[in-house]
């Protein structure tokens, strides 16, 4: 257990760093702040020289989850003393049921569906990688006392470091190759995802697909007694958004039943969708256009495109390219592929085009001009904007990118 009477160093002053600062202030803890890149005007801030000379005076190092602590890092030999903000929830949680959700894709949607379904009977909140925190609330104890179920979206970065958080339920939605710039290889990335089972309370379950278990059981120590398999296939394919929604709902049916057998789940149980996640933004004149700006994984983008049973479809890729496995290639069939941004060559190098053509564009604006002409001349039935790359090349985040796509697509439809 963390000793709040010890001395802490907040290493990294981003969203989680600022949140934990307020938490430590509320607890009257002794701490300092250090950031490699930001100039911080704060009495608690120390510089690099001070840190190097006095590093041994700190009992705990609270780091931003995305900081990689490798063998060359200053904190490597202190890795057993490294914490992240979520570790401090171990002090605050008591009667609440805690659900941890991880996976490469679909984490946020799964959390969102769980909240909407469980909120019919229980006070339910989402925190973690979903984008919000609760640690810095002044009346945290009072706030948590009103929560029945807390859903925590967990990234591989967080799972790589978490020590004290405990879960009653854990879900792995899926695993695609991802975050290889942080993890040394795919095996390390997969291992980080399966660390979620180590956070479970005794006799609590890990929910995942049987296909995922079969694929990785030889390489990982998986406690079979903890496992509950969910169905990860849909027998009837409707549109893409419906298919993915059903897939995500399947992953939580048994879990929700175990929490409360009286709660029933069907497609109507979820009324809304996350913005820019498999979002059907146009459906007219035999043309459907989907905005899936939240997709930053190339494998997942190709997977979704291949779910669309049509030879008259367009896939839009682009953004900041993520590191892939060496010599990896993804098959893409019967598709016109439009790719934008500075990394178009990297996308092309990792695609195997089968009865498909591709075109490259400097940015999304130029791509949309070409799309407008193409939709007028050719009879396409589907356009899927599922970039498969990060948004930080031209945009603040995937929300900014998704909003821009919606704005541009209106010009196509005039």
Q: Would you give an account of this structure?
A:
This protein has 414 residues and is α/β, with parallel strands linked by helices. It has 3 domains: 7-83, NAD(P)-binding Rossmann-like Domain (Rossmann fold); 88-269, 3-Layer(aba) Sandwich (UDP-N-acetylmuramoyl-L-alanine:D-glutamate ligase); 279-413, Alpha-Beta Complex (Protein-Tyrosine Phosphatase, Chain A). The chain is built from 13 helices and 18 strands. Strands 6-7-5-8-9-10 form a 6-stranded parallel sheet. Helix 4 (107-118) crosses helix 9 (240-259) and helix 12 runs parallel beside helix 13 (398-413). The radius of gyration is 23 Å and the shape is globular. The termini are far apart. The mean pLDDT is 92.
Strand content: 15-25%
How far apart are the termini? 61 Å
Mean pLDDT: 92
Q: How many domains in all?
A: 3
Give the CATH H-level superfamily of the largest domain. Mur-like, catalytic domain
Question: Under the CATH scheme, which architecture of the largest domain would be assigned?
Answer: 3-Layer(aba) Sandwich
CATH topology descriptor of the largest domain: UDP-N-acetylmuramoyl-L-alanine:D-glutamate ligase
Question: What's the number of extended β-strand segments?
Answer: 18
Widest beta sheet: strand line-up: 6-7-5-8-9-10
Tell the overall outline: globular
CATH class of the largest domain: Alpha Beta
Largest sheet: 6 strands, parallel
Count of individual helical segments = 13
Low-pLDDT residue spans:
none
- The portion of residues assigned to helices is 25-40%
Rounded radius of gyration (Å): 23 Å
Strand pairing plus helix content: what structural class? alpha/beta
């Amino acid at each position: 257990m963390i000793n709040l009477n010890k001395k802490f160093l907040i290493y990294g002053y981003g969203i989680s760093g600022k949140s934990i600062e307020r938490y430590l202030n509320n607890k009257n803890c002794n701490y300092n702040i250090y950031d490699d890149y930001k100039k911080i005007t704060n009495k608690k801030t120390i510089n690099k020289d001070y840190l190097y000379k006095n590093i041994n005076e700190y009992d705990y190092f609270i780091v931003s989850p995305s900081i990689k602590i490798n063998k060359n890092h200053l904190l490597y030999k202190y890795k057993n003393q490294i914490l992240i903000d979520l570790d401090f929830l171990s002090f605050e949680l008591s009667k609440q049921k805690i659900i941890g959700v991880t996976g490469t894709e679909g984490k946020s949607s799964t959390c969102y569906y769980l909240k909407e379904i469980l909120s019919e009977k229980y006070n339910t909140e989402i925190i973690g990688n979903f984008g919000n925190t609760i640690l810095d609330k002044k009346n945290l104890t009072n706030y948590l006392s009103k929560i029945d179920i807390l859903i925590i979206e967990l990234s591989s970065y967080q799972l790589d470091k978490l020590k004290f958080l405990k879960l009653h339920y854990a879900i792995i939605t899926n695993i695609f190759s991802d975050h290889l710039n942080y993890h040394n290889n795919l095996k390390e990335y997969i291992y980080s995802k399966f660390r979620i089972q180590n956070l479970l309370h005794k006799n609590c379950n890990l929910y995942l697909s049987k296909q995922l278990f079969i694929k990785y059981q030889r390489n990982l120590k998986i406690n079979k007694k903890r496992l509950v398999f969910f169905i990860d296939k849909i027998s009837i394919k409707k549109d893409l958004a419906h298919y993915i929604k059903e897939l995500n709902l399947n992953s939580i049916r048994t879990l929700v039943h175990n929490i409360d057998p009286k709660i029933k789940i069907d497609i109507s149980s979820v009324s809304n969708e996350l913005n820019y996640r498999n979002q059907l933004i146009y459906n007219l004149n035999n043309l459907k256009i989907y905005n899936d700006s939240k997709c930053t994984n190339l494998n997942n983008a190709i997977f979704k495109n291949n779910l669309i049973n049509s030879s008259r479809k367009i896939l839009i890729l682009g953004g900041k390219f993520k590191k892939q496995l060496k010599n990896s290639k993804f098959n893409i069939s019967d598709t016109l592929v439009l790719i934008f941004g500075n990394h178009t060559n990297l996308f092309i190098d990792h695609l195997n085009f089968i009865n498909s053509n591709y075109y490259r564009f400097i940015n999304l604006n130029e791509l949309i001009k070409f799309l407008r002409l193409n939709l007028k001349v050719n009879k396409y039935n589907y356009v899927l904007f599922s970039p498969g790359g990060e948004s930080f090349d031209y945009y603040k985040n995937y929300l900014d990118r998704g909003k821009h796509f919606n704005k541009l697509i209106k010009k196509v439809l005039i």
